[in-house]
Amino acid sequence: MPRISDQEKADFKQAVYEIVAAIPSGKVSTYGEIARLAGFPGYQRMVGRILREVSDEMGLPCHRVLNSQGRLVPGWAEQSELLKDEGITLKPSGCVDMRKFGWNPMDNIDEI
DNA sequence: AGTTTGACTGGAG
DNA sequence: CCTCCAGCCAAAC
After folding, report:
1. For nucleic chain B, which protein residues have CB less than 7 Å from any of its atoms?
2. Taking the CB of the first residue and of the last residue of chain A, which one, N or C, has fewer CB atoms within 10 A?
3. Which nt has its C1' nearest the CA of A74?
4. What is the DSSP track for A11-42?
5. Measuring from the CA of residue A35 to each C1', which nucleotide is nearest?
6. Which nucleotides of C are covered by protein (CB under 7 A)?
7. Residue A93's pLDDT band (boundaries 50, 70, 90)?
8. pTM above the 0.70 mark?
9. Which residue is nearest to nucleotide C7 (CA to C1')?
10. Euclidean distance between CA atoms A67 and A95, whole angstroms
11. Which pLDDT value is given to residue A2?
């Protein structure tokens, strides 16, 4: 039994779209981070499920969403090129350096 | 209605 | 760096 209503589920889905669309080029985010920003901490798997469903549609930059380890999506060969085009380099291990490319929404504030 | 699965996570070998 | 595992939550079986 879902712990959230269908309405909340729809809101969550919408929030995920908004957040992913807000990730600036050259930066990356994580499933857990997005779930938190959407207001549903602990729903990383749902984020993954949602992004998997859209994949190539809506023009969402879902290639900028990685797991907490900075690891790329398994079975998506193009992703590394998409990231590379934005200036995101991969470590020898094939992972992204989250400390360097991780997106912090607060970056916009700038003048605090 | 019970079990398995997955674009997850953090920690343990 | 690798794999394995428990915890997680909704969807798919």
Report:
1. A 30-33, 44-49, 51-52, 54-55, 62-63, 65, 67-69, 73-74, 76
2. N
3. B7
4. HHHHHHHHHHHHSPTT-BEEHHHHHHHTT-TT
5. B8
6. 1-2, 8-11
7. very high
8. yes
9. A42
10. 10
11. 77
